[in-house]
């Protein structure tokens, strides 16, 4: 199996919500996105797999060196060999790739956050920085597209946090700000044990509104001139926004099992976004009201 086949397989096997967006891209962009996604998946798994933190830090340091080799040498790993081809073809920022590793490493340094201001850098690094990589592959003309990418990335990450709340708490990680938990009378132990209470629902409503705020900011900063080129980002955003709405519709019963969207729904959203971009219909911002 060559490097290209490896990154493609890693992306398909992940069953990511992003995969539907990748399929509609031209080949060069699609292959570059596979490389970026596979890199993100691998470095994230370094921490999620558990084990000795010292070993995990050394492994992340190895991937930092691999990023350096993408720009200044020859990478050793098949995934970064493919990523090197992507950074040669598209202006993917080295700083953003390094920030992704910095964000993943934060999970080794802390398992909770006191305030939203403390949590935001984590969301920026593990998701906003990914968005900054993606838009360089998709292409854009208006620099406001960078704000769009960061806001959308943070919105997606907040949606992930709400969906995976119970599983993360069982592993000792509570991403929701501690001050928010205290405000609504919910404890980390409540999350770990999956206690579904009126106070928990109020907490989740508050956090969902924060996520909606970032979706709104993203769509308000999406330049009309770049909407066609950024259709794949819109697919990702619309799929995750639909996931947030599914979480809300089920009244935040995230302890009962992982809430997902049917594959048919994802493909329908993808095709709708693609067609809208081709026809120049723009973004329906009213959907985030």
What does the secondary structure layout of this molecule look like, with pairings?
Blueprint: H1 3-14, H2 19-23, H3 27-48, H4 53-72, H5 78-89, H6 94-109, H7 116-138, H8 144-163, H9 165-170, H10 178-184, H11 188-193, H12 198-221, H13 231-249, H14 263-279
Keywords:
Farnesyl Diphosphate Synthase, mainly alpha, 289 residues, 14 helices, single chain
Give an overview in words.
With 289 residues, the protein is an all-alpha fold. It has a domain at 110-262: Farnesyl Diphosphate Synthase, CATH 1.10.600. It has 14 helices and no strands. The chain has helices spanning 3-14, 19-23, 27-48, 53-72, 78-89, 94-109, 116-138, 144-163, 165-170, 178-184, 188-193, 198-221, 231-249, 263-279. The longest helix has 24 residues, at 198-221. It is globular and about 50 Å long. The N and C termini lie far apart (47 Å).
Form type: globular
Which topology of the domain at 110-262 does CATH recognise? Farnesyl Diphosphate Synthase
CATH superfamily of the domain at 110-262: Farnesyl Diphosphate Synthase
Structural class: mainly alpha
Q: Which ranges are low-confidence, i.e. pLDDT below 50, for 5 or more consecutive residues?
A: none
Which CATH top level class of the domain at 110-262 fits?
Answer: Mainly Alpha
CATH architecture heading of the domain at 110-262: Orthogonal Bundle
Number of helices: 14
Number of DSSP strands? 0
Helix content: over 70%
User: How large is the share of residues in beta strands?
Assistant: under 5%
């Amino acid at each position: 199996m060559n490097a290209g086949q490896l990154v493609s397989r890693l992306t398909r096997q992940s069953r990511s919500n992003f995969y539907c967006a990748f399929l509609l891209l031209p080949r060069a962009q699609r292959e570059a996105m596979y490389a970026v996604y596979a890199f993100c998946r691998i470095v994230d798994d370094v921490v999620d797999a558990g084990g000795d933190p010292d070993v995990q830090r050394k492994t992340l340091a190895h991937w930092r060196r691999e990023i350096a080799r993408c720009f200044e040498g020859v990478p050793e790993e098949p995934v970064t060999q493919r990523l090197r081809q992507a950074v040669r073809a598209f202006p993917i920022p080295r700083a953003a790739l390094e920030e992704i590793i910095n964000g993943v490493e934060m999970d080794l340094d802390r398992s909770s956050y006191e305030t939203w201001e403390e949590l935001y850098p984590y969301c920026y690094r593990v998701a906003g920085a990914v968005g900054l990589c993606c838009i360089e592959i998709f292409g854009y003309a208006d620099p406001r597209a960078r704000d769009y990418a960061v806001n959308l990335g943070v919105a997606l990450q907040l949606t992930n946090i709400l969906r995976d709340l119970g599983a993360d708490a069982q592993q000792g990680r509570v991403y929701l700000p501690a001050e928010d938990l205290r405000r609504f009378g919910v404890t980390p132990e409540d999350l770990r044990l999956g206690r579904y209470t009126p106070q928990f629902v109020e907490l989740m409503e508050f956090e969902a509104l924060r996520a909606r705020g970032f979706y709104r900011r993203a769509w308000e900063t999406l330049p009309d001139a770049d909407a066609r080129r950024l259709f794949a980002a819109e697919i990702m955003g619309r799929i995750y926004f639909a996931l947030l709405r599914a979480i809300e519709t089920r009244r935040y019963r995230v302890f009962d099992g992982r809430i997902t969207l049917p594959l048919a729904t994802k493909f329908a959203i993808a095709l709708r976004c693609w067609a809208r971009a081709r026809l120049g219909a723009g973004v329906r911002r009213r959907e985030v009201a």
